[in-house]
Structures are given as C-alpha cells and as structure tokens.
Amino acid sequence: MRALVIGSGIGGPVVATALRRVGVEAVVHEAHDGPAEGLGSFLTLAPNGLAALRTLDLLAPVRSAALFPSTRIEFQNGSGRRLGLLDDGSDELDDGLQTVTVMRGTLQRVLAEAARAQGARIEYGRRLVGFTATDDGVTAEFADGSTAHGDVLIGADGLHSPVRRIMDPAAPRPAYTGLLNLGGSAPPLPVPATPERTMRMVFARRAFFGHQTAADGRTHWFVNFPHPELDRAAIAERDAEQWRRHVLALFADDHPAITQILRASPVDGFRPVGVYDIASLPRWTSGRVALLGDAAHAVSPSSGQGASLAVEDAVLLAACLRDVADPAAALRTYERLRRGRVERIVAEGRRRGGQKLVTSRIGVLFRDLTLPLVFRLIAMRGGHSWMFDHRVDLADPVRETVSG
C-alpha cells in the first residue's frame, strides 16, 4: 500500500513514520520549500502526545529539542495575586512523559528528520491543487503540474486544509474564537523567574499573558487578546511596532513585570494570528481520503492539546490501515474511534478561551473571585487526567470496524 500525505507540519511526519512501521509506503508532500523551522512560536506536548511519540521511537529526539518541562500551571490575576495551581501529574511519571514546551518550528524539523530516518519521503515545494479519488486509489495534482498516485490520501495540512476543502466543499469553515495570539521571548531580566517546571498564566485586565523562564534565564511568553476578526491582509496593514504598542497598552494597568518582559522582546514577535477552532465536521473521511490533526478538528491553543491530538490521530490511523483490510473501511474506523475524544477536547478549549474574552470590570472581578474555586474543584476531581492519561499505542490491535 502507498499513502500520499499532504502537509509536513506535525501530524504529517508522524503519520508517515507510523505508516512505515506498519508496512505502508508513505510520501509526504509539503507546499513550503523547506521545513519552515522559523514558523510559529512554541507549544506544549502533554503526556498523551508524548506517549504516542514513544510508540514510534520519536520521544527521545523530541524531548532533546524541548525548551523546558512545563508540568504545572500557576494562574494569577493582573495584579499578581495567585488564583490557582494545576499540576498535570506527569512529574510522577518516570518514563519521560513529563509535559514539555518546544518551539513549533523546531518540532517540525525534528519530526521531519526522524520520519526520513525511518524511511519516509518528504517532498517540498509540492502545493496541492486538487485530487481525483476512485474506488481503487487517489491521484493528487500539484501546482507545478505534477501528479502522484496512492492507495490513500491523508490531509495533515492544517487549519485551512486544502484537502478538507476539496473533499467536502460544504464543510464548516474554522470558527474565530474572538482572540488574536502572538508570542516571543525576552532576554534575562530582573523580574521574578517562574517556579521550576511551571508555566505562569495571567488573567489580566484586558488580555491574557503566559510565560515561563528557561534555564538560560530567557522568558518565553505568549499573549491572547480579544479583537474583532481580521484576515491576514488586515493584520498585515499594521506593522509589528504598531501591534507592539497596542499590546503594551492592554497591560498598562497590570503587574509591571508583564510590560517589562514585552518591552525587552524583539519586535518581530508582535505579529498576531487569529485563534480558530473547528467544533465538529460532518465527516473526516471520504472513501480513501482522510483528515487528521487541525484539518479534522482544530482545537484552541487554550486546551494545550493541538499537537498531542495530531500525534494520537497519526498512530491510530496507521493501526487502522494495518488491521482493517479495506482502506476505506479502515479510515472510517479511525474517524469513529477518534471523534468523541477530540470533540470533547475542542469544546474544553473553547470553554477555557471564553474566560480570556472577559474584559468588563464587573466580569473581571467576578472571574477573579470564582476562578480559585474552579481550580480547586478541578484539582479535587483529578485535574485534566481524562486528557493526559489517554494512551494510543501502535502495538494495540484495532478490532472495531465501521460499515457503510
């Protein structure tokens, strides 16, 4: 069997690696001219995603590329008062599954290198413009006029997936969550460092600020702030310095360490992007075509699960193609086994993001009064173990099939 994988972000190289493990030839086609190592800011990989990487022998290279472990989240309000502390429990694990923070571009490069080392091919400069699917396979068409044929086609091509658009033109578009996001890093500063292994997240007066201090003293940070939806062209109408001034004004009434970190950061970090999610698609598959990761179920960064879910998808999809004889039935089985979990996490990410949209004085006061209770209740109920304790292992057989 031969698989065409569209997109070499996070899910693409991982599914190619997993497919090679089950005897499927995998070729990844990426629109960019190279690994795009400078793309994006940083993200977290939770124990569930790290466990899925471990089943493909990808855990060690990813952990070696990480910035730092981030096993606890300390929440504060804009004045610096602690609202709560959540521990993901991964410090108790002794098998390398502690949550880590890693630069997105670095993660993509490491995964691409590992996929090639395990026999997958990655072809850059291959922008998909169409495909034709039959009962026997799929032929992909690229902007340079070339084509490729495979038994299945897998869209791991992100939030604005061309595969999704071609597969189902009527599919819902990604929904704007009301937030813009940006991030960067600052050199060592005379501000209090975050506690070891702890990401500090601040519900400030008019925006949300997250940061963690690395071993070298640098502060890696991100900002979410409410804003009417803007497309890329509208965002680009303001230069990075204008966005920087806008963000600094949002935190003018909050703890001064926030603006101190922001002022010390390179201006290039102040280029926002919209935060979108996809609550549910009518279908992730059509015949021998399937979606994974953000193409199927984009989740807000507030969940901390986007990359981990893409890795879980990749491992289970490969297992389904190994254990279910008919490729189309295998892809339907994959969708059936994944949909409930990921849609619950998308909803959780949207709920968390909603707290960041509160800016009225009364709303902020109410949030500061109620969040400590919310965090205590979450901790009493086992935190978010329902997300972190999930395991997808390539060695596990897939027995469920989906008819129709």
TrEMBL record:
InterPro entries: FAD-bd, FAD-dep_Monooxygenase_BioMet, FAD/NAD-bd_sf. Residues 3-347 form the FAD-binding domain. It comes from the Bacteria. One of its GO terms (molecular function) is monooxygenase activity. Keywords: Monooxygenase, Oxidoreductase. PANTHER family: MONOOXYGENASE, PUTATIVE (AFU_ORTHOLOGUE AFUA_6G14510)-RELATED. This is FAD-binding monooxygenase.
